[in-house]
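User: Can you predict the 3D structure for this chain?
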Amino acid sequence: MTHAELRSPETKAAEGAPSSLEVVTAFDDFMRAFESFKEVNDERLAEIEARIAPDAVTTEKLARLDEALDRQQRVLYTLALKSRRPALETGGGREPAARGEHKAAFDAYVRRGEVASLKSLEAKALAAVTDAQGGYLVPEVTEREIGRRLAEVSPIRAIASVQQVTASVFRKPFATSGFASGWASETGARAQSATPTLDELAFPAMELFAMPAATQTLLDDAAVDLDQWIAEEVETAFAEQESVAFVTGDGTTRPQGFLTPTKVANSAWEWGKIGYVATGADGAFAAANPSDGLLDLVYALRSGYRRNASFVMNRRTQAAVRKLKDADGRYLWEPPATGQGGATLIGFPVVEAEAMPDIDEDAHAIAFGDFRRGYLVVDRIGVRILRDPFTAKPYVLFYTTKRVGGGVQDFDAIKTLKFGES
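Assistant: Here is the predicted structure, written as structure tokens:
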């Protein structure tokens, strides 16, 4: 159990939507930090071009500015995230009777451990969710809020396709060879249509869990919105686990990540594998024209995928990319145009995913592709909670589970940049 999963809700201050002044101020601070970064990096590049080693003071100053730029970018991202987040639906509207009854029964279960009403309701609804099988279903509004929060803070989920299912495995057929097609005149002979060869991709849903804790004193406080608290508490734990699984998951006890399939040089690409482009230098960009590797990666992707493509990398790789310029001396990495926007690289959005590997020998540290077509996240409907007042007295633990699967659905839609000679 992580520290984040055990923290008590009393320690969290109420967070409202940020004011427009806060967002504008944070954006201005970020842009000033970026201008300072460019100025010092230009000094470093000038020293290199003069065939002298970069001054140690310049290098240290650049590193500090790089860290400051990362901090400002995180502040800006957090404020933008809060400003977009909708308020959790509460008692303002009129809910259907059954939904309101379930919400009231769930509230009694979470606060006092009363199970009779909730068990009766789920039995009537033919829900195969009993205490012995892992808890009770959260109200629909809470499940929707958890899904919204994950879409905002889980980087790969935010750019991938998401499919909700009720079964334990989602199966998607695809044609490995299609129907015959061609051109013919009005009276010319047509070739007989070939029978397509079909195969299927399977995406099993794996169990993801978090275990937030609360004191009984807080649970007895009627002013506390438990639906909101549950959604906030599981957000970070779920997002952290998903972020790793969607990138490097092995597909056994967690979803399969998009870096897990076999990777081959893009010239030898075939279905079921991920194509890559090499930088030409082990563990680094090429010494001469380092930006060429990124351009080669962009154009390794077919034009139909490039329209909605994004770069995916971790913050340390992004820090290295920030220093690169094109042949005309323009920086390839551009800051967001507004406080609500995101950074771009060669005109394409940059998605920061900490689970991506660092730049190292033969590491696939940058991915580029249309992830909405390339990667599928499968959500099995239903989030469950099991109340545990015994394990960590005086705290009450809430073992919260949801089932999530994922994997590559179009192997031609994602390419990687390999930091190696070939």
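Confidence is low (pLDDT under 50) at residues 1-14, 86-94, 126-132. The chain has 13 helices and 16 strands.
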